[in-house]
Specification:
The chain contains five helices and six strands, in the order βααβαβββαβα. It is α/β, with parallel strands linked by helices and 128 residues long. The protein has a single domain, classed as Barwin-like endoglucanases (Beta Barrel). A six-stranded mixed barrel has the order 1-5-2-4-3-6. Strand 3 and strand 4 form a beta hairpin. Helix 1 runs antiparallel to helix 2. It is globular, with a radius of gyration of 14 Å.
């Protein structure tokens, strides 16, 4: 299914990053995709299912979560971090920070692939 992806900070992502990027807490806070409940039904996914998000810049597997507040149909959100980095424009324009906070066209599909811990994700990104 086609979606528009937004990224940004969340309270939970910010709290978890302080605890440690190599912890399950960080994965649960940042390796997630918030999605409108009706879109989840159309995609055939439930809270906690793994989905693959694919953009022109790359792909990543994250867990889907129903938005707590109503979100526009066709719009998804992934918190800033290594998982979002895999699907946003990699050009940092000399800032060393990927370009977040802009809608990016993505495809999303249900998957049986594993959601990786941050260390596994980094190894995959830089070794393969």
């Amino acid at each position: 299914m086609k979606f528009m992806l937004n990224t940004g900070r969340t309270i939970w992502q910010g709290e978890a990053i302080e605890a440690g990027k190599n912890l399950e807490l960080y994965k649960k806070a940042a390796a997630v995709c918030y999605m409108n409940g009706n879109d989840m039904l159309k995609l055939g996914v439930r809270d906690g299912d793994a989905i693959e998000v694919i953009s022109d810049y790359g792909n990543v597997v994250v867990n889907v979560i129903t938005t707590k507040e109503e979100a526009p149909a066709g719009m998804i959100f992934i918190p800033m971090g290594p998982w979002a980095n895999r699907v946003v424009l990699p050009d940092t324009e000399s800032t060393a920070m990927p370009s977040f906070k802009g809608p990016i066209a993505v495809d999303v599909e249900k998957t049986n692939k594993k959601v990786l811990m941050m260390t596994e994700l980094m190894r995959q990104a830089y070794i393969e």
